[in-house]
Amino acid sequence: MLDLAILGILHESPMHGYELRKQLAVKVGALRAAFSYGSLYPTLRKLQAIGWISEGDADDEAAAPAGAEVPPMTSRRGRVVYKITAEGKERFQELLAQAGPETFEDQGFGVHFAFFARTDPATRLRILEGRRRKVEERREGLRDVLNRAAERLDAYTLELQRHGLDAAEREVRWLEELIASERSGRTPGPAPAGGTEGMKPHSDTPERT
Amino acid sequence: MLDLAILGILHESPMHGYELRKQLAVKVGALRAAFSYGSLYPTLRKLQAIGWISEGDADDEAAAPAGAEVPPMTSRRGRVVYKITAEGKERFQELLAQAGPETFEDQGFGVHFAFFARTDPATRLRILEGRRRKVEERREGLRDVLNRAAERLDAYTLELQRHGLDAAEREVRWLEELIASERSGRTPGPAPAGGTEGMKPHSDTPERT
DNA sequence: GTCTCGATGTATCGGCCCGATACATCGGCG
DNA sequence: CGCCGATGTATCGGGCCGATACATCGAGAC
């Protein structure tokens, strides 16, 4: 999962770890907590080892004229800038397209959804429907508890079930809207107030070199 | 976290692992997925090793007259029934009362809340307010992104932020209601339709031996 | 009668990810 | 000039998950 997220962020522009984590936080922060450094740095090494990302050659390095580098200080451990490789871009597309069971879990869904702008429409639909199924099952489970075992639970536990059920119902409705949107070829968003132009989605940004 | 959950479930009645997991699923299943066996069994061993729970002496064992045991079969690995010890009960109360930072995280909050019926009112209030603070911070973060960086995000990411923001706002409102309930000494539940009597919470069930 | 199948039941292993911690640099402010 | 908070890289222990293996049991198929 973190692999996918890192590739997705680096796909937009090269970056060092610290900045990467901040971008990650705004990208996927809505559905899961930001990944910690304890996962981030090891994963960066792993991705580098298998050649999906590479070190250096960021544009601020390139901008500096040779010979006039920043002062090395005493054993400077300098920022390490990572960029995605050509192979990394291929793998990213593959990972985006394949939707395993973990894709429908909270975490996995959040990450996949965050990169929907780069996902092909058929896959988007598959993921949304898989997620919906998952949440529906959860919802049914909660309904069963509330209907069949309510008398054996204390008031606080019941209240928790109710809140969970409400959240599940809302998410299903949200997913329904998104699915309807997808099917009609629209871009998601609030119903356009007056204009009919479909809020340009950052124009996809395929390359920015 | 799992320690607390196990102690809480076993506090109600002795049980073997399989049943324990199912109870766990209905108790805390509203806010987090059920704990897997990969965590459950090692944790049961750990708790047994430190003496907070013990093996055997379930009531169905006690009910069988000596000498007439169930046929041992070929090397039967039989169900192992766990029960909470006196020390375990003490530790359970301690764990319930102390509210560290992880208590306000999704997982921790869910587990603590599930046992609110056994938690003293002051602690309940502390936990609810801590959780509210946490969710408020999350909500503010999402609002900032939507206000300040919206133009740099694609439509799908924006939609994700909106959904997350909505969920956060709802949870804060939910918590507000619970806090108000606590302060007025009421038990949680839906606003009483016509009557004012406050839906008895299963009468607290302090002991059931 | 027996055979298969799904539910019950216990258990481990590899791996992902988190929280805490350590350490170093940098800019600004008193 | 010194302190402090933000930036920045990195590791370590531990919690939890998903997959897997294995064994028993009741019930329905044939």
From TrEMBL, chains A, B:
Region feature Disordered, mapped onto this chain: 178-209
Domain Transcription regulator PadR N-terminal: from-to ranges: 6-94
Biased composition (Basic and acidic residues): 199-209
Keyword Coiled coil carried by entry: yes
Keywords recorded for this protein, A-Z: Coiled coil
Residues in the signal sequence: none
Superkingdom of origin organism: Bacteria
Family matches, as InterPro entries: Metal_resp_DNA-bind_regulator, Tscrpt_reg_PadR_N, WH-like_DNA-bd_sf, WH_DNA-bd_sf
Protein name: PadR family transcriptional regulator
Species in which this protein is naturally found: Luedemannella helvata
